[in-house]
Structures are given as structure tokens and as C-alpha cells.
Design goal:
Elements (H helix, E strand, L loop, with lengths): L1 H8 L2 H8 L12 H14 L4 H8 L3 H7 L8 H10 L2 H17 L11 E2 L5 E14 L33 E10 L5 E8 L4 H19 L6 E5 L16 E4 L10 H7 L32 E3 L8 E3 L3 E2 L5 E2 L8 H5 L5
Parallel strand pairs: 2-5, 5-6
Antiparallel strand pairs: 1-2, 2-3, 3-4, 7-8, 9-10
Helix pairs in contact: 2-7
């Protein structure tokens, strides 16, 4: 209820009805907002499956849909057919609407966005672009002359690809882009298998440019952190104008002209570590007179009945203290007090 009230107050529900449209034959009396209401509720419910969510929602169907100013809950089969027939246009319209809402309402009134300050005093903004994979396991299906050809519902959303350490036969890749300082979510793009990583990268960069324009932040002080999925020379042309950090896939990236040109430049700064003079001793904290460290030592093989106790640390009140640190400065670091 709090989420719906907030969406109404900010006018998001009205924009969803007006800007996110999807025309389809035999659509009935349902609209996009009806299915979005189910997805919103399922996302925040914490239920493991959609079936469990429908079962828990059954006694409250009418009040739940009334929150979205609708009168009927779509059945699970209706929701399944809607998601199967959904095209890219309404999904992109929904993604654009959420990004517009994020840019229109800053987190603070003075538009504080965070950042990192380098040694020269320049403020940098960091964005994370990450490709995450989700693997799906498939059972072996019987194939005989008496049975029709096997059909899997996951074929439309998953495909064979790199699984990493995940167990499964097919995967789906999702590219996410977020502002690293405020954790603002700028976009999410998913595709079958290994995904369309360069297309998704261009979409992520477009969202980042819109963010920089809205906050009037210079692009030359923007740093991108990318996953190893983008660690090849092909993406360097897409990242022109941005500073970036990438985990490389192979060493052929070092042969790129841009990388070679940078490697042949003189160093920006030289640092030299001075060696210690001969005979220097490691730094040790001075001892504290009047206080000796101590511990309880067991005697014998596992027998704790007979113990030999060394002197413990004593405080100014005469109490004995024990500490994990066995240096005299430990009491001052921990601020032990009498009690």
C-alpha cells in the first residue's frame, strides 16, 4: 500500500496508463496497468513462485486491485499469455518512464550525487556496468516416434551460453547499470544466452549520458567500471570519451593503438620508496611500567583442573582485565574503564 500511495503521489501510475501502451488482439478488458499491478505485488511480496503469490492474494483480490484503481485481477494464464506476446516497444517505454522519473526527482534538494576526489582535487563520478547470468536446468525429455517433438518454454528466454560457475544447460544474461555512489538504478537490459553485450553497452551509455546531462556533470570526469564480459578491443570504440576500468579477457587488447599510444607516453608521476638504514629495528610499542600481561595456561593433556595463572593486567581500580591484544597500549585503544 505504501508503494502504491507513493506512485500515485508522484504521478507515476497516471504516466503508466498514458505512456505505456500495448495493443493486442483479444486483449479483453485488461490493460497494461493490470499486469503491472500483479508484477509490482509479486516483486515486493517475497513469495518464491507466482503460484504462491496468487494463493496468498486470493482473499484480498478486490482490495489489492482497488489500490491501482482497477476492478479485476488477471488470471495466471492471462498474465502468462500477456508476457509471451509482449514486444520491445512497451518495455522500452516503461524503461524510459522510470529513468525520466529518476532524473526528475533527485535524492536531495541540493542534488548531491556523490563522487570520488583524486589527488589533484578533481571529482569523479563512477558508474558500474555489469553483465549477470542466470542459468536454468533442463530435464532430459523422452524422444520417440509416438511423441511429438519436444518443446521447452525456456527456449524463448534462454539459450546455450557461458555459465561460469552456475549449474545448468541454458542461460540468460542481464546487463545492469547503476550509479556507484548513490546506488541509483539507471537501467536493466536482458537477452538470451550470452546476450547482445555491445547493444546493451550502448544502451547503458545512453542512460549514463542522460544522467550526466540532467546533473550537468562533465563526461571527461566520468569513470566506468565494467565486467570482464566487455574486456576486449571491440568495445573501445563504444567507450570513446569515457574513462573506464575493465577486466580484460585476453592480452590482445594491449595491441590496440589507443592502448599502445598510452603505454608509450612518459609516466605521469614517479614514486620512489626509500630503504631503511642498515641495522634499523622494527617499530615496537614501549612497555608500560606497572602493568604486565598475563593469561591462563592449562597444564597436562587437556586437563584444566590444574591451572597456572600468570599476572593479569590491572586497572587503576585494582580489577584484573583480560584482552585479546597482548600489547600494553591495548587498554588505551579499547578505552577500558573500571566498573
Amino acid at each position: 500500500m505504501l508503494v502504491v500511495t507513493h506512485l500515485k503521489k508522484q504521478g507515476v501510475l497516471t504516466k503508466l496508463r498514458e505512456r505505456v501502451r500495448f495493443a493486442r488482439r483479444r486483449f479483453g478488458h485488461y490493460d497494461v496497468i493490470d499486469f503491472l499491478a500483479v508484477l509490482f505485488g509479486y516483486a515486493i511480496s517475497g513469495e518464491r513462485t507466482l503460484e504462491e503469490f496468487y494463493e496468498s492474494l486470493q482473499p484480498f483480490t478486490a482490495p489489492f486491485m482497488a489500490l491501482f484503481e482497477r476492478d479485476r485481477l488477471p488470471a495466471r494464464s492471462t498474465l502468462s499469455r500477456f508476457l509471451a506476446a509482449l514486444t520491445e516497444e512497451p518495455v522500452e517505454a516503461l524503461r524510459t518512464l522510470f529513468l525520466d522519473d529518476l532524473l526528475a526527482r533527485p535524492l536531495t534538494h541540493d542534488k548531491q550525487i556523490g563522487g570520488l576526489v583524486d589527488r589533484a582535487g578533481n571529482t569523479w563520478m563512477v558508474f558500474d556496468i555489469d553483465g549477470t547470468r542466470e542459468a536454468a536446468r533442463q530435464r532430459a525429455l523422452p524422444q520417440t516416434e509416438d511423441l511429438p517433438p519436444a518443446f521447452r518454454r525456456l527456449d524463448e528466454v534462454c539459450a546455450p551460453g557461458y555459465r561460469g560457475r552456475k549449474r545448468g544447460e541454458v542461460v540468460r544474461t542481464r546487463t545492469t547499470v547503476a550509479q556507484a555512489h548513490s546506488y541509483q538504478w539507471l537501467g536493466s537490459f536482458g537477452n538470451r544466452g550470452n546476450g547482445l553485450y555491445r547493444t546493451e553497452l550502448r544502451q547503458s551509455l545512453a542512460a549514463i549520458r542522460r544522467y550526466l546531462t540532467a546533473y550537468q556533470f562533465p563526461q571527461e570526469y566520468t569513470l566506468l567500471r565494467l565486467d570482464g564480459q566487455y574486456g576486449n578491443g571491440a568495445v573501445l570504440t563504444d567507450l570513446a570519451g569515457f574513462a573506464f576500468v575493465i577486466r580484460g579477457k585476453d592480452y590482445s587488447l594491449l595491441d590496440h593503438p589507443l592502448v599502445q599510444a598510452r603505454l608509450h607516453l612518459p609516466p605521469d608521476q614517479l614514486q620512489q620508496r626509500t630503504a631503511k638504514p642498515d641495522g634499523s629495528q622494527p617499530l615496537r610499542l614501549p612497555g608500560d611500567p606497572g602493568r604486565t600481561r598475563g593469561r591462563v595456561l592449562p597444564r597436562g593433556r587437556g586437563h584444566t583442573s590444574r591451572r597456572e595463572e600468570e599476572p593479569h593486567w590491572g586497572d587503576t581500580c585494582g580489577h584484573r582485565l583480560r584482552t585479546v591484544l597482548h600489547e600494553s597500549a591495548a587498554t588505551r585503544l579499547h578505552g577500558l574503564r573500571c566498573g
